[in-house]
Amino acid sequence: MTTIVTGASGHVGANLVRSLIAQGRDVRVLVHRNSQPLEGLDVERTRGDVCDPDSLTRTFQGAEVVYHLAARVSIEMDNWPALHAVNTIGTRNVVAACIKCNVRRLVHFSSIDAVEQKPINIPVNESSPPAEGKHHPPYDRSKAAGEKEVWAGIARGLDAVIINPTAIIGPYDYQPSHQGQMLMSMAQRKLPALVDGGFDWVDVRDVVSGAMQAERMAPKGAKYILGGHWASLSEIARIVEKATGAAAPGFVCPLWLASAGAPLATASEHLRGHRPLYTRASIIAINSNRFISYARAITELGYNPRPLEETISDTLRWFADCGRLPG
Prior knowledge:
β5, α4 and β6 form a beta-alpha-beta unit. The chain is globular, with a radius of gyration of 19 Å. 43% of the residues lie in helices and 16% in strands. The chain starts with a strand and ends in a 6-residue tail after the last helix. The protein has a domain of 221 residues: Rossmann fold (3-Layer(aba) Sandwich). It is α/β, with parallel strands linked by helices. α1 packs across α6, α2 runs parallel beside α3 and α5 packs across α11. A seven-stranded parallel β-sheet has the order 3-2-1-4-5-6-10, sandwiched between helices. Strands 7-9-11 form a three-stranded mixed β-sheet. The protein has a two-stranded parallel ribbon with strand order 8-12.
């Protein structure tokens, strides 16, 4: 059984490929540019791009299962064209290639950001509406539109399931992700302040396990939120402090002040050649709904996320083992 993974070089992809190999699966990965996270792994590599339908058709030939992870991630507010091209049109191309190549099952990785978070006192679940409208950040809208492409494929007969993880942290975070960058900045005492807000955090290994269970067990057209534990940035910093000894920042910026200063902070980081952490979009995210229900995944997939402290400790240890943090 050949299993395809798009976006295999990303954080989730690097963990998923390792888990598939551990099951003895024949894995073929679609590589766009970077293949460093896949070095030394027994996988078949093909060059391609989700924006190139012909490369997808070549890659998907003979495949039984496709995990579609390839996406452009952004926490900024001004890059809709690039996000739409990859996250929406790219997903449309993946769906079409799956149908053309008679792929048995597509597992599509979306995001909790694709789901409407308001009203924030009502739990978010799989029946919550999509994040549509210009008041949502471009990334959120592009992922919601990508889900619509999958639903359109299901209507045409494609067997597909959709996964909506929350904020992912964990090992094998090579790039690193924004969340991994945040943890490293805390451990290196490079964050002068925190923002008064938080998010639902989930271990990448639990997301991979849940997705693989969905591939095996979920009915056609099922959708699962894979969440973990809500924690404020201050709580995250305290866990990092306990694990590393790096003192948590003493100042917690109120949301109104962070929102007002985000455009200036973003511009300043760009001028310094750095990737910003505090942007208008990230401020919206950490002020979103803290009541994320993954009850369906628990009931239907046996989903059971591990403790947040374990995830953060393992993540920091992995960064240290890679030489990115002091031991």
